[in-house]
Design goal:
Helix content: 55-70%
Mean pLDDT: 94
Distance between the termini: 49 Å
Shape: globular
Number of helices: 11
Low-confidence stretches: none
Length: 286
């Protein structure tokens, strides 16, 4: 009985996040519900992520706290608060950025969100790729790579300045063509759900979708602790840009554990939240 439940959870986990999570968000926005419901939806899926990682983990060691719970909570709170603020103030300046108002606002919200995901994925992936090539960007991005375990919640662990860079790279093309505020709200939810999926410690089934989607089985290779191995799989939502860059990689025989994570050149990278905010600006930069 337990095995049957576990198998069912592994089967349904990916569609639960991709289809149900985003589907509920689309419904809430389309029906004009208060934005607070989107925050509640995100919290529900964070809870699902934690609970399911206990039930069917990829690696049980990834479930063991490493004095990182408070830090990851602060990262998530700060970064998602900035996302909400950014969307909220968009009407004040968004119109100034429109170069060609060609966004297909008449399309159903689901198709508008899918288009926004595909466009933003290219910009975010390229910014991510550049962050492994330019030392000034790597100093900010190294915060995210300092993790010693992979679980859904630390997908939200980023230096706020690096999140800003990726956000600008992903949303500027959308703003240029007049994307509406409600689509950007949905995009924020989609990004959070995807980060939970991408860093998840749930051993969920992916099948051939791993060739197209940037899910956890693929993204773990990006967190390998050396540039020689980890400079692969930069995509947020898909592997499409990685395939164009020649950085898509997967090895079905490889098992990745805690010893493979972190930054090999800086094994003692600060773990405290406030120290991580300041680390990119110190002389002993990573």
């Amino acid at each position: 009985m337990i095995r049957s439940i576990t198998w069912l959870v592994r089967l349904l986990y990916l569609p639960l996040f991709l289809l149900v999570g985003n589907g509920v968000a689309i419904y809430l926005v389309a029906e004009g519900y208060n934005q607070g419901w989107l925050v509640f939806l995100i919290l529900v899926f964070i809870g699902i992520s934690f609970a399911t990682e206990k039930l069917t983990p990829y690696d049980r060691a990834f479930n063991e706290p490493q004095q990182d719970q408070r830090r990851d909570l602060l990262h998530a709170f700060m970064n998602e608060s900035l996302n909400v603020i950014g969307v909220a103030v968009l009407p004040l300046f968004g119109g100034l950025l429109v170069l060609a108002p060609i966004w297909p606002s008449g399309w159903p919200l689901a198709f508008q969100l899918l288009l926004a995901i595909l466009i933003s994925d290219v910009g975010i992936t390229l910014a991510h790729f550049a962050s492994h090539r330019l030392s000034s960007l790597w100093r900010l991005h190294a915060v995210h790579h300092s993790v010693k375990r992979l679980y859904g919640f630390n997908g939200l662990m980023k230096h706020p300045l690096h999140q800003l860079i990726e956000t600008v790279a992903g949303t500027t093309p959308l703003l240029f063509v007049g994307v509406p505020q409600n689509v950007l709200m949905l995009l924020v939810v989609a990004v959070v759900l995807q980060l939970l999926l991408q860093h998840s410690n749930v051993a969920y089934f992916t099948g051939p979708l791993r060739r197209v989607l940037a899910i956890n089985a693929v993204h773990r290779f990006h967190h390998l602790n050396t540039a020689e191995e980890g400079d692969v799989n930069f995509g947020l939502f898909t592997t499409l840009t990685d395939r164009l860059l020649g950085t898509a990689y997967f090895d079905s025989e490889r098992t990745i554990g805690t010893k493979d994570l972190g930054i090999a050149s800086t094994p003692n990278y600060p773990a405290d939240y406030w120290q991580q905010l300041m680390q990119p600006f110190r002389r002993d930069k990573t």
